[in-house]
């Protein structure tokens, strides 16, 4: 696993945005998997700035979703589809037709999960999938003890997750859905390049368990150890529990500049 330690979240966002821009330059119709939440915002801001400056033309790139709430009506401002359209698709100058995601309002949610898995495969596969990590090591909504071969499926949100997400719903937990659709770990691992960004001391234990701990369903993100091209970008605080931090710094510093992530 490639581990890159950066000074802060802004530097991590710039580094990953440049990797995404380089991918788009090589493959203009690249399929980029995106995540929601506050952690990836510096990535999207940096990439949008590159588009605005003419450093990359993302007009034919494609975007796909990692997860989605179940039961919110189409167009709800806090559906992850709406969030991705606001934070990624519109700033990059893309059209809604460039975007694909699971249908969280479907009458048959299980069928919607299977249809999304099939759509990802039919698209040619995800070229680069962005990931965040929970303090318990979860990726997407694959909580601890999720199957490492799981596919896109419906999951029940823990009460703590609903409490945490209530801030997006006027601090009213009753408005927060109980279920989500999430790409499974097996689905995530099919992307050609996985890039996980983690910032803050609160993520340090999860990062250490993911990178240096054993492969375990108890730490879903540790499945990245199985991937042929996985990059973990962390700030100094999130790297504070890594035993091999100095090795990771030296390894990345020695890489040829053209190689990138």
UniProtKB/TrEMBL annotation:
Gene3D superfamilies to which the protein is assigned, alphabetical: 3.40.50.1360
- How is activity regulated here? Allosterically activated by N-acetylglucosamine 6-phosphate (GlcNAc6P).
Q: Which GO terms describe its molecular function?
A: glucosamine-6-phosphate deaminase activity; identical protein binding
Under Enzyme Commission nomenclature, its number is 3.5.99.6
* Family matches, as SUPFAM superfamilies: NagB/RpiA/CoA transferase-like
Enzyme class comes to hydrolase
InterPro entries, per the entry: Glc/Gal-6P_isomerase (IPR006148), Glucosamine6P_isomerase (IPR004547), Glucosamine6P_isomerase_CS (IPR018321), NagB/RpiA_transferase-like (IPR037171)
Q: Where is the active site?
A: 67, 136, 138, 143
UniProt domain Glucosamine/galactosamine-6-phosphate isomerase: residue ranges: 10-230
Which pathway is this protein engaged in? Amino-sugar metabolism; N-acetylneuraminate degradation; D-fructose 6-phosphate from N-acetylneuraminate: step 5/5
The record's annotation in NCBIfam families points to: nagB, PRK00443.1-4
Q: What does this protein do?
A: Catalyzes the reversible isomerization-deamination of glucosamine 6-phosphate (GlcN6P) to form fructose 6-phosphate (Fru6P) and ammonium ion.
Q: What is this protein called?
A: Glucosamine-6-phosphate deaminase
Give the species: Streptomyces beijiangensis
> Gene encoding it?
nagB
